[in-house]
Amino acid sequence: MLDLKFIRENPDTVKKGIESKNEKNRVDEIIALDTERRSIITKVEDLKARKNSVSQEVGKLKKAGQNADAIIAEMKQLGDDIKLRDDKLAEIDSSLNDILMWIPNLPHESVPFGKSSTDNVEARNWYPSGYEEFNFTPQDHLALGTKLNILDFERGAKITGSGFPVYKGKGATLERALINYMLDLHINKHGYTEIFPPFMVNADSMRGTGQLPKMADDMYTIERDGLYPIPTAEVPITNLHRNEIFEEDQLPVNYVGYSACFRREAGSYGKDSKGFLRVHQFNKVEMVKFVKPENSLAELENLVSDATEILENLKIPYRVLALCTGDLSFAAAKCYDLETWSPAENKWLEASSCSTFWNFQARRANIRFRKKEDKKLEFVHTLNGSGLATSRLMVSILENYQTSDGHIVVPEVLRKYTGFELI
Predict the structure, then answer these.
(1) CATH code: domain of residue 132
(2) Contacts of 349 (CB under 8 A, 6+ apart)
(3) Predicted confidence (pLDDT) per residue in 330-359, tens digit
(4) 93 and 129 together in one domain
(5) Cα–Cα dist 59/154, whole Å
(6) How far apart are CA 290 and CA 190, in angstroms?
(7) Which end of the chain is more exposed for a tag (fewer CB within 10 A), N or C?
(8) Is the confidence at residue 266, as pLDDT, over 80?
């Protein structure tokens, strides 16, 4: 959530930032409500001061044995006027909060301007040493998985619906190995603390990280219990510290956690839907950071480095994209996407997004830290990054490690987890 004072003092900057994200500009509406709100607050304060003054006069009149009926009547009228304005103030506050919840975070000044994903900027790419294209026509991950009996999308559709995959045999083992490997590297080398979060959260948690109200149509909902299956572990892990205060010397706090992720993706119809290219349930290892504001951009680069180390150890070609303003998520101030190469699809597939949210999420979730020097409270900066999502990454592993006779060589770093080298 943006700071109301910042919007009031920088309306043109806010309008420009909102419009650069292709979002609806409601700044004038906010400022009008805020102006009315502050006017009412001033009037209420004047009325309360008058009521206090009149109250003292009543005491003096009664003590002197004089009639105080007129003053008492004025007090009652003042009380009614105060209540009327307090009720109006509550109505305006509610309207302001509702609108502010729909206002996106502003892009950081370093984010390239653009209207859509076609305007994203490739920051760099990486290929393993000696990487060569296949001297045979590569099969796609769906054909490989079906032939080797390690993936079953048809039975997944039967027991749940399309977009809910079933991993079988060595495919299930490979998926579990990948998750464990990523967790172990982030914990043992990168210094993250592991969290195993709930896979369902309440509405306050969804609001805290910016999923509600903006992304309501893309989420599954358990209405009877007021719960939401999580779209990412970012939601429960970030909300661990909702309404809490860190001490400055506790920061940064770095968490990593595995979760299944659930996404309706209501607006995705007509897009690629084959196999893992678009699923409604997938697995992901998520990195979440709580940092001091001055370290936010440096920590974003650290997130990207931690995620790309996984890809380099797996020897999977990847590229890093700096997202343009028009492709940034609702809550992100700056974001890099990591895409892995699919030789069968002959294109890059998103496997991770690494973002800093500035203090946008922290304001919504009320996560602050106490500065050591002056004891003042300030909102933390939150960041998160997929480290990584397994579905698209699994596509790249299966396709890049296939042999000419249709088998899969297990990446070397995963073999101690799988116990086998070939599928």
Answers:
(1) 3.30.930.10
(2) 277, 339, 340, 341, 342, 392, 395, 396
(3) 999 999 999 999 999 999 999 999 999 999
(4) no
(5) 83
(6) 15
(7) N
(8) no
Residue bearing the bigger pLDDT, 234 or 67: 234
Domain boundary among 39, 70, 100: 100
Q: How far apart are CA 227 and CA 261, in angstroms?
A: 14
Q: In what order do the strands lie in the sheet with 347-356?
A: 121-126, 318-322, 334-342, 347-356, 381-389, 281-291, 253-262, 193-195
Residues 6+ apart with CB under 8 A from 263: 218, 219, 220, 231, 280
Return d(Cα 208, Cα 367) in angstroms, integer.
10
Single out the residue in 40, 75, 100 at which a domain terminates. 100
Which whole-number Å values give the CA distances from 227 to 196, 199, 263, 319, 354, in the listed order?
18, 10, 14, 36, 26
Residue span of the structural domain in which 165 resides = 117-418
Residues in the chain: 423
Closest-CA residue to 209 (of 137, 101, 369, 310): 101
Q: Do residues 161 and 301 both lie within one domain? A: yes
> Residue type at 235?
V
Nearest to 48, CA basis, from 7, 87, 10, 81: 81
Query: Is residue 375 in a domain?
Result: yes
Q: Contact at 8 Å (CB) between 359 and 276?
A: no
Q: How far apart are CA 42 and CA 36, in angstroms?
A: 10
Does residue 265 register a pLDDT over 90?
Answer: no
CA diameter of the chain: 109
CB 31 within 8 A of CB 8: yes
Strands 347-356 and 334-342: antiparallel
